[in-house]
Amino acid sequence: MKLRYSILIFFLASSISIIADNTYFVYLHDKCGSPYSLDMPWEFLSERSLLRRERQHIEIDSTDLPVSELYIDSIRSLGARVVHCSKWINGVTIKADTNIIKKIRTLDFIDSVQLTKLSDTVNVVKTIRHKLPANLQSYYGEARQQTEQINLNRLHDRGFRGQGMLIAVVDNGFLNSDHISAFNHARENIVDTCSFVEGVGGIYEACTHGTYVLSVMAAELPEKFIGGAIDAQYALYRTEDDRSESMLEVDNQVAAFERADSIGADIINSSLGYFHFDDTLSNFNYSDLNGRTARNTIASTMAARKGMIVCIAAGNEGNSAWHFIDTPADADSILCVGSVDSLRQHSSFSSYGPSADGRIKPDICTMGEYSCVVSSADFPSRGNGTSFASPLAAAMVACLWSSMKGLSNMQLIELIKQHSSNHDSPNISIGYGIPDAWECYMALHTGAPANFDSGYSPNDTQYFDMLGRQVIKPAQGIYIRIIKGKAEKVIL
Questions:
Q1: C-beta atoms surrounding 197 within 10 Å
Q2: 182: in domain
């Protein structure tokens, strides 16, 4: 589901009915019969994806191999239609009737089959939104407060606006993003698009939530609204089906994460979370939020293991009976992002942690209450939701990483946590607190314009510990060593 949010604009609504089909997820036993080899990864991963792994010393393993085509062909031969293939989960999302499912269950390479979506008729609500008066504030316009709260503007002043970073935005539709003026610059940097939702057209044809989320990062309307990472590249993936709520959307999300990996994305932002469905038998329990149960959670952790930084909205259930974060925000090694207001206080709607296995959640918080976005009608508007806090964090990550290309994803995550407002006493409402992008930058660069790939050459060798803190006299341990602008991991 889209994380529930409030857009402070008047609206009109209308509905239509659409019919969907039965859907299942089939877990496969292995990847036997694959034509691909780990010795030739360029046959199934892009050059950019391989370079990301090489840069962070991440080995290519069996989880990178595509699903066995022999198994897929066998499933298709029984009459099933394959919707998605997941190499990380090693399974396929299919559509089939119960007789076909009975036959599939007898195949010797099948581990299990799970029903993810029943055939039903659902209502789609379309909204028509009306313009709010703009309040112009300097260059950043309406976005100034949320940008300055995390000191992201100071990174922009240094010239770091996400250049060299590829952000995959996994959401619902991106209505009008293909032609409104706010994205004139961003459209030049969109390198991949895909809809993983069947029967709804392209990514730009309906649904505005993705447009709002993308705007926080990529929109550019000088003196009205400036996004947090306007020079980054983007991949836009539609996975949310607003017609219903089912486990199929979880599988859509997994498929998008895997595509993001394959094209070489550095960062994933997804302001989508799931814990209950139209079929209540599929609902997650709080005990399932342990980082290793939900398929989208497993995929989020896998994306982190492949060297990406995954930003996931915590959820907007803080005032509800559920109260806690959603999946995949419970994943390990990611940034689960909650919301604060302009006074740096926890937003009452922002979901609480911890994960079911006791890990601190959310990890960090940015401004998601009365935050500014650009609407699909090309004007700034205000809204509430961790949906808008997460892309702001993703934009910050992009700008920081473009200035610190020698860091691994986990080193950068730890650096961000250590330079957040609540790092000494993280809790279940705001986690490590509000990050300070400038402090992160200064911790590594001590004020120097130190993009490791930009020709910056310190006179002396510099060492940084695994939390990103500069060490004058390194003792025995693991460090990042920088010599003439080149960073490498060393063990002393």
A1: 22
A2: yes
φ, ψ of residue 376 to 5 degrees: the values are -70, -10
Question: Could you tell me if 67 and 104 lie in one domain?
Answer: yes
Can you give the residue range of the structural domain that contains 486?
Answer: 457-491
pLDDT of residue 20: 42
Q: Report, as ranges of residue numbers, the positions in the chain whose pLDDT lies below 50.
A: 4-20, 121-137, 447-459, 466-468, 485
Look at residue 489 in the predicted model and tell me its pLDDT.
62
Q: Determine the pLDDT at residue 429.
A: 94
Residue 451 forms part of a structural domain: no
CA 307 to each of CA 53, 59, 410: distance values in angstroms, whole numbers, following the listed order: 6, 10, 8
Question: Which residues are CB-contacts of 391 (< 8 A; sequence separation ≥ 6)?
Answer: 169, 213, 214, 216, 217, 228, 269, 271, 311
Q: What is the pLDDT of residue 19?
A: 37
Each residue of 287-319: pLDDT tens digit?
999 999 999 999 999 999 999 999 999 999 999
Domain check: are 95 and 183 in the same one?
Answer: no
Q: pLDDT of 429-440, one tens digit each?
A: 999 999 999 999
The backbone torsions φ and ψ at residue 380, rounded to the nearest 5 degrees and listed phi first, read: -70, 145
